[in-house]
Design brief:
The chain has 228 residues and is of the alpha+beta class. It is built from six helices and ten strands; from the N terminus they run βααβββαβββαβββαα. Helix content is 27%, strand content 26%. A hairpin with a 5-residue loop joins strand 6 and strand 7. The longest helix is centred in the last third of the chain and has 24 residues, at 204-227.
Amino acid sequence: MSQARYEGLHIQEGDMLEIIVTALDDLAVKPFNRTTMQRTGDDGSAGGNIRLGDNEYQVTSEGYVIFPVLGNIYCKGMTKQQLKTELDTRLKEYLVDPVVTVRHTNFNISVLGDVGSPGQKTSPTEKLNVFQALALAGDMRDSANRTQVKLIRYSEESGKDVTYTLDLSEASVVNSPFYYLQQNDILYVEPDRNKQIAANTTNPNRALFLQLMGVVLGLVTFVIALAK
């Protein structure tokens, strides 16, 4: 059976990216790494109060990273590989055989609803599918509706959140274009109403309530019979 193709994360505003440039000439490559800029008094950050780590860049609200020497690099909507290719091309004007590595450092998703531990989750891996995301949230509860899991994803085209429905009871979900998650995706697991009703039917407290009601009804019937 075929499986959904993983195309990588698409860079969004607010993303934190670690970008490291290396080359055979160590001296020539120094101006292109943030660690060097920190020593010269320029932190190379995108502004704001977020403290950036070594060689870490925040994508601005306009979709840029402010890169040493090269200036503003537009990367919103790109994959890591596309940004790497863009940087490789520009750096070849200054360096011989540059090597660029790009890594997300804040891949966050949210899992809400009928799961063991709802909330925002930070993934240790960038290639995250829907089942792995649910595992980060303690998996779905027994009362969860596995056929109506909602995926909420921001669409750059429409400029708003779009909701998709995933049926996790079907093996074909691995072929879905939404099988792999993107940065800031939201998964909402609906409760199964039929399972909740069944659980209430077998609830010990409900059974005790029915027993008490039976006793009360019996006493009322007895009193009415005496009155006659």
